[in-house]
Amino acid sequence: MFKKILIANRGEIAVRVIQTARRLGIKTVAVYSEADADALHVASADEAVCIGPASSAESYLVADSIIKAAKDTSAEAIHPGYGFLSENASFARKLKRQGIVFIGPGPAAIASMGDKITSKKLAEKAGVNTIPGHDEALRDGAQAASVSKKIGYPVMLKAAAGGGGKGMRVARNDAEARSGFASATREATSSFGDGRVFVEKFVEQPRHIEIQVLADGYGNSIHLGERECSLQRRHQKVIEEAPSPFLDEDTRRAMGEQAVALAKAVKYVSAGTVEFIVDNNSNFYFLEMNTRLQVEHPVTELVTGLDLVEEMLRIAAGERLRLGQDDVRLDGWAIEARVYAEDPTRNFLPSVGRLVRYMPPGGGVRVDTGVYEGAEISIYYDPMIAKVIAGGKDRNQAIVRLQEALDAFHIDGVSNNIGFLAALTAHPRFHAGDLTTTFIDEEYPDGFHAADLPHADPASLIAVAACIHQAAEECAATINGQVAGRERVVGTEWIVVLDGANHEVSMVVGDGNFDVTVDDEAYSVDLDWRQGDPIAKARINGAPFFIQVARNGIGYRLLQSGSKVDVLVLEPHTARLQSLMPVKAPPDLSQFLLSPMPGLLVSVAVAVGQEVKAGEELAVIEAMKMENVLRAEHNAVISAVRAEPGDSLSVDQAILEFE
């Protein structure tokens, strides 16, 4: 086994690899950009080497700098994690020439599987089911439209060197094929340095199901079952689980056999993933092979009991696989939710800033992360904060544990998608296992609005809000009572204002226990909360209840199970006066196009005096390695252009003004 390895990555995957290496007694070397000097992976490793400025192109993507760091620290091998250079055949070849072991497959397998056009041809040759399409790179938008029409709409335009949802566009007509080709080409060039785009048939109502494979250098290849990765947004996975709630044993076996056949055909060595698209009739088609560790690998680890990073290390060190196909057992269920720094209520736009509070859940769930309280989420890298992985004896138990963990996960300082994840896991379709890659688009066609999501039991929210306010008022009264003449008596009658409606609440107060009556309904509440705590833990009528709490002016903002509500808790006479207060109207910003996120203004498609129609492209902003197209919401005339391509924009900065 290796004595020292270098991890050519950052964030949670770098920390993840370091944890396994430490358990195996292997010393670790972290590399970091100037922006990551204080990152968790740097502090976690035995040694750390700075490899360049913040930009990935000048640091994590510079192979020579990483190789130099390995040589300078006498690292015997390099684990690439995922992203960056993990699927770069040239990097793997350079390491081989330098006598440094690449903890992953050989360069030939990376090259053949990393190119979607080549990989599809190899899959067909190996007897793997493939999607109909045009297997050559497209020349231009005109050819994209012509070929797409022959295949039959809808089609998927895809970057040949792509991955992670980048450089992918669905087209349903000639116009979308032409514009999709241009956009996919730009994004592919920016992300991978390779602008080639091809096209294939888009399978309607598809499931995205992938097979994990392991292969050693002695011809042994096995699969570890499947992962259901259908819950996606913009082709990026959001929630994954193992096993799939859809597959039967025959389909699982057939997919596994084809995945292993492909691995053997390309002489694959290491951990890898063969991804398939599956239709409603259980027909499955090869999508791509990822020649690296996947973000969602923890769910496979939970149901198999294996450490995939350890298996990669052992294979790279020349060991044989320690188990055969008949030894693989899937036990229980596991679900993973990806926590991102993004704002679901603003079309999932990325968020940057400092993690003022970061309190991951406990309770037996696994949290993989590369951040800590006080860490910075920057504009330079992927916006992932953490992954929450919950296991159970069956799917229902895993869902319940994940929901409790999400309710108990508190982040402050940047916007995040925890509420959205909670809403997805509470959705009836999710519970039924009725999943497709279009699930999010279908269920939230106009975007996600947490305030529009009704809570399953609003009376419980009202009862807990009243108890929290009662506890806060009693704390304030105790402090005031220490000063002569400032004694206060706290009442037990309240009006809770929720969604504009008044609810009468009365209670009998014990030591952390409350007998509460809400609109004539009785509740028994045990509350574990102190002034300033961001999370209230309670039991309502004996059932566990986690809720996130924040002051919102004179009221409270409560978040639970994807539902965000603002409540006021008032004394009865104050409530009567509050109802007479005027409501201030927000400023009218409809005449401006505002930047919805911090990022780089790539292009402005209009000029002063130009008439634009609803839906027409106005500008493109790049943030977190993704292009975001801003379109006109209504017909208008451009009266001013307030920003230029190349400008670094802040949130709500004006780009255009309309007449």
Could you please describe the fold and organization of this structure?
This protein has six domains: 4-103, Rossmann fold (3-Layer(aba) Sandwich), CATH 3.40.50.20; 104-131 and 207-331, D-amino Acid Aminotransferase, Chain A, domain 1 (2-Layer Sandwich); 133-201, ATP-grasp fold, A domain (Dna Ligase, domain 1), CATH 3.30.1490.20; 332-444, D-amino Acid Aminotransferase, Chain A, domain 1; 458-578, Glycoprotein, Type 4 Pilin (2-Layer Sandwich); 592-658, OB fold (Dihydrolipoamide Acetyltransferase, E2P). The chain has 17 helices and 39 strands. Strands 14-13-10-11-12-15-22-20 form an eight-stranded antiparallel beta sheet, with helices on both faces. An eight-stranded antiparallel barrel has the order 24-25-26-27-28-29-30-31. Strands 3-2-1-4-5 form a five-stranded parallel beta sheet. Helix 4 packs antiparallel against helix 5, helix 7 crosses helix 8 (174-192) and helix 12 runs antiparallel to helix 13 (418-426). The radius of gyration is 27 Å and the shape is globular. 49% of the residues are buried. The mean pLDDT is 92.
